[in-house]
Amino acid sequence: MHIEDRVAIVTGAGSGIGRALAQALSAAGARVVVADIDHPGAVETVELITGSGGAALAARADAAAAADIENLVGLAESDFGPVDIYVANAGIMGAPGLGADADWDVILDVNLRAHIRAANIVVPQWVSRGTGYFVSVASAAGLLSQIGAAGYTVTKHAAVGFAEWLAITYGDDGIGVSCVCPLGVDTPLLNAVRAAADSDTHASAEAVVRSGAVITADEVATATVDAIRADRFLVLPHPEVLDMYRHKGSDYDRWISGMRRYQRTLRSTQASED
Known about the structure:
Layout (H helix, E strand, L loop, with lengths): L6 E4 L5 H12 L3 E6 L2 H13 L4 E5 L5 H14 L5 E4 L12 H29 L2 E6 L12 H21 L4 E6 L7 H7 L4 H11 L7 H14 L3 E2 L4 H11 L1 H22 L1
């Protein structure tokens, strides 16, 4: 897809990867609706974009609420034109461990149903126009697994699966899909998880940062914009994730044994630090 003169919505764009994606899309020539439940953060992102000569609007929105998604699409259409690119970026780590029913409701809403609800709104429009692009910001945890956080692992796996389904089902209708699966990224989310007192949450963060280099949000955004231009599905800002994924698939039992061993190492290290 050509990004120039396109209209994009980016959720969770008040900071971190979402902010970097909004800025990168703007730099590539798109007009961007910056959405976040943190409205001051969204405003700050817009100021960064407009200060660089781009066109952007800020909107407070719950990315998981269908009414808010519809409002974002309406705002984009009224100010910029029909939406061409939807970036489902907003995400949370969720509760540690198994979590309670209420915890699962929250993380499923934000990390998965937000993507489904957005697709239900924008995809029919794109099919009628014969063009559109959906970006699912998942995680390497969606290809591998996340130690310490069942909800995060399951919802990221599901987000990858939903993105695959979209690409298969609507690829012949002119709709492109990219699924972004980074390891550690220097964002407020990762920093908050690393600072958590809960042992399972802390283990989640340590598992990420020890698996590979912690890269910048700008690096993720650059890789994503390149993928949109090339109509490439899988976006791996950490190329080593592909080897990890292949290793997992080649011998599942060996991979699970290795992950259990890795978990024991993390727990032992944390116990000695405590």
